[in-house]
């Protein structure tokens, strides 16, 4: 089918360019090394000074490198596996493909809007575009009229949906602890802004990803058809993302940054997300030749 061919082409482009971008971030170490700069706010920030992230701060660049490892050795293999599985007619494969594409979409959206301009800018642009259209086409391929019937009656709806609601509230409170205190004490700008323009991660999480988690969980508990699509996809995305975040927290710790309570919260959420993903997949009944 033309549809299947377009997703295969887009996913192939994503695989190639993600390997390029992640490899350059992980293995490129050229440039002079760390140095200090004064921000427009009069604060001193240590810049990483190496590789594609040489203009990022020494606090943030190692996180990008850590996520590069996860993208290279977890995200790309999962994208290949899910694409092959989905092309064989598997509904589970299509859910896995949607969730994995969601991870790449969010990852390169963040890289494009947060990463200091570097040689990979056009690569990020192409990755964002290809992942968006591949993700959208994959979502549109599902038949919502009977999707709820593909889940067994033993699916732990309340537990799975409840965790998504809890996840959104817990992470949201963690980010509000960064944003709100400076607003209360009058300093306005959190130290985490460093030499960047704003808090990109916290902003997109609070404005988009966490509300999606909350609504998906709530409507899944209420057994709304659209959430039978969003919830499995979101859990795959969340599982990969939490693995990447765990790697980022570990990298922060290796550079002497304070990582409590994140070093406890993030891996715990990651393990629960993977557990819920397994539960969901165990309770999906495969239709015959639905993807053909």
Automatic annotation (TrEMBL):
It comes from the Bacteria. Keywords: Membrane, Transmembrane, Transmembrane helix. The chain crosses the membrane at residues 7-27, 66-86, 95-113, 119-140, 160-180, 200-221, 233-253, 259-281. This is Uncharacterized protein. It comes from Fodinibius sediminis. The keyword Acyltransferase does not apply.
């Amino acid at each position: 089918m033309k549809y299947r061919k377009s997703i295969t082409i887009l996913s192939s482009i994503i695989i190639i360019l993600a390997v390029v971008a992640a490899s350059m971030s992980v293995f490129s170490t050229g440039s002079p090394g760390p140095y200090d700069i004064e921000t427009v706010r009069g604060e001193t920030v240590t810049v990483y000074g190496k590789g594609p992230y040489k203009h990022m701060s020494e606090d943030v660049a190692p996180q990008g490198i850590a996520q590069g490892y996860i993208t290279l050795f977890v995200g790309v293999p999962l994208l290949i596996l899910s694409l092959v599985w989905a092309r064989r007619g598997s509904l589970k494969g299509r859910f896995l493909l949607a969730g994995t594409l969601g991870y790449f979409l969010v990852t390169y959206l963040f890289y494009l809007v947060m990463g200091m301009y570097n040689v990979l800018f056009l690569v990020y642009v192409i990755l964002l575009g290809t992942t968006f259209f591949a993700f959208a086409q994959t979502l549109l391929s599902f038949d919502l009229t009977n999707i709820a019937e593909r889940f067994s009656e033993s699916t732990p709806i309340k537990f799975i949906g409840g965790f998504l609601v809890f996840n959104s509230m817990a992470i949201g409170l963690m980010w509000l602890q960064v944003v709100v205190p400076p607003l209360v004490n009058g300093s306005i700008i959190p130290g985490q802004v460093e030499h960047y323009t704003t808090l990109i991660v916290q902003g997109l999480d609070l404005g988009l990803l966490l509300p999606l988690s909350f609504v998906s969980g709530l409507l899944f508990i209420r057994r709304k058809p659209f959430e039978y699509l969003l919830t499995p996809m979101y859990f795959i995305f969340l599982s990969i993302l939490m693995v990447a975040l765990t790697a980022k927290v570990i990298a922060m710790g290796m550079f002497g940054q304070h990582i409590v309570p994140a070093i406890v919260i993030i891996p715990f959420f990651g393990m629960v997300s993977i557990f819920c993903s397994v539960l969901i997949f165990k309770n999906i009944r495969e239709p015959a030749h639905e993807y053909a």
